[in-house]
Amino acid sequence: MSSEAVKGKTALVTGASRGIGKQISLALAKLGCNLVLQSREVGNTDAIAQEVKDAGAEAHQVSAELSDQAQVDAMLEGAQKGGGQIDLVFNNAAIMTEYRQDPWQMLAEDFRKSFEVNVISLARICYKLVPPMLERKWGRIINVTSGVADNPSMMAYATSKAAVDKFVRDFAPSFKDTGVMMNLLDPGWLKTDLGGDQAPNAVEDVIPGALVPGLLDDGISGRLFRALDYQGLSIEQALVKGAEIKG
Question: Which of 29, 102, 170, 196 would bridge 52 by S-S if both were Cys, CB 3.0 to 4.6 A apart?
Fold first, then answer.
């Protein structure tokens, strides 16, 4: 395990234009990792693409509305053509539907939208990009989940993230001895557009913890990494701590 593990490799980061995705993208670029930056509109990643290039890494911009599976497919084709071989995937993008003060008034559409973006598109990205990783015997898939709990007013979002957890943990045994790892990342409650201004932590606090599942090389899949557990650590210290998580 080393911070050098991603040097010269290419990572697809969804929701890269701001918030957690932006922080992950910049941190990877500083480690020499090239980026494929996804957002709803290509222009949304213009600023972050320039920062990635300023850090000495390559940046390729792609766009897709993740609630539209045709756009997801086109984005993946563009990512592979423009960015080349995708070695890491940070499935970071997600939506949270309207907060329902009365949870019994939650709409079926809330669940449909949440699952379309947070689960179906995430799975579609994995199904497209994981098989080539298995052929090459190296790859990292980091699927972002959430620690939200005991809040029925956020049930559509919470159940979609529970589905992501199930997706990762059921696939985990199939990655044994393949060189490919799939794990979960809980970024914590951060001040982002999704997390809101009341969140107790700055978005910058997601680093270095968010990088840990992308840099470890112990071959273990199906784990949950909580980014805020690594606050104040160097990347190398975070990797030592992360390696202690066995399941």
Answer: 29
**Cα 168 from Cα 175, distance rounded (Å):** 11
* Strands lying side by side in the sheet with 59-63: 59-63, 34-39, 10-13, 88-91, 139-144, 180-186, 224-226
Summarised one tens digit per residue, pLDDT across range 49-98 is 999 999 999 999 999 999 999 999 999 999 998 878 999 999 999 999 99
Asked if the model's pLDDT at residue 20 lies above 70, the reply is yes
Cα Rg of the chain (Å, integer): 17
Residue 125's closest CA among 108, 142, 111? 142
Helix, strand or coil, per DSSP, at residue 198? coil
| Reported pTM | 0.95
Give the position of tokens 């918030």: 19
Spatial separation of the C-alpha atoms in residues 97 and 28, rounded to whole Å:
30
Under a CB-based contact definition with an 8 Å cutoff, are residues 45 and 17 in contact? yes
For tokens 């980014």, name the residue.
Answer: 227
What is the rounded distance in angstroms from the CA atom of residue 92 to the CA atom of residue 12?
Answer: 10
